[in-house]
Design goal:
By secondary structure, the chain is mainly beta. It is built from 1 helix and 11 strands. Helix content is 4%, strand content 52%. Strands 2, 3, 6, 7, 10 and 11 form a 6-stranded mixed sheet that branches. The longest helix has 5 residues.
């Protein structure tokens, strides 16, 4: 999925409990892939915008956000075990990238529906 423009792109997600999660995005500006060299990423999932508890935190540091610098590709991922630990329900999330100079860009935001797992 390509990301354009100044405002975050709204992308709603379905996250089945117990299933490995992976979603990729490609950042483009004016039709050209953005060089993501030196960027780090983070995404947080919460039950509400104000909720103090983070249901799922994905970062480049914990391996939940991977960045292909020259390809402009950002991938969010979580293991099946991590997904099993999340209570089924509706969550809000966003994903930000931070450049090596400290500039933060929120690229994606939306609702994530975690559906209940039967097979365990």
């Amino acid at each position: 999925m390509a990301l354009y423009g100044a405002c975050p792109v709204e992308v709603d997600l379905c996250l089945p409990q117990g299933q490995t999660f992976s979603q990729s995005f490609r950042w483009k500006q004016d039709g050209a892939v953005v060089d993501l060299s030196g960027y780090v990423g983070r995404a947080m999932f919460r039950s509400t915008y104000e909720a103090p508890t983070v249901a799922l935190s994905l970062t480049t540091a914990n391996g939940g956000v991977s960045i292909s610098a020259l390809g402009g590709l950002i991938t969010l991922s979580a293991s099946a075990a991590s997904m099993s630990a999340i209570t089924a329900g509706r969550y809000v999330y966003d994903m930000e990238l931070e450049s090596s100079t400290g500039i933060v860009k929120r690229l994606v935001e939306g609702v994530a529906q975690v559906t209940r797992e039967t097979t365990r």
